[in-house]
Write a structure and sequence with these properties.
By secondary structure, this protein is mainly α. It has one domain (8-87). It is built from 3 helices and 2 strands. It has helices at residues 8-24, 28-45, 74-87, and strands at 51-54, 57-59. The chain has a two-stranded antiparallel sheet with strand order 1-2. α1 runs antiparallel to α2 (28-45). It is globular and about 50 Å long.
């Protein structure tokens, strides 16, 4: 049986993301870890479901949805989104449009 290796940098990212999610709402970090564990389990049982990025190395995207937008406070929502993207080390092009009347 194949095994899944989580590199130290990825493990540190997961820990940092967990802490960030827990600060947003207690329990949200645990939901995130559950999604991570589920994905890792699936990588063991169904490795062919994940894209090969180099030789025998595969990449998994963790399916997990978070509602970051606060309909009453858009500034807070944008700040939270930017913080999350920094934690996840994402490159993003942000487009902001005015609401249509």
């Amino acid at each position: 049986m194949k095994r899944v290796i989580v590199r130290p940098a990825a493990a540190a990212d997961i820990e940092e993301a967990y802490d960030w999610y827990e600060q947003q709402r207690p329990g949200l970090g645990e939901e995130f870890l559950t999604a991570i564990r589920s994905t890792l389990d699936r990588m063991v049982t169904e490795p062919e479901a994940f894209a090969v990025i180099h030789r025998a190395t595969r990449r998994a995207l963790v399916p997990h949805r978070y509602q970051l937008l606060d309909q009453t406070n858009y500034r807070k929502s944008v700040d939270q989104l930017v913080s999350l993207l920094q934690v996840l080390d994402c490159d993003v092009d942000l487009v902001v449009r005015a609401k249509s009347a």
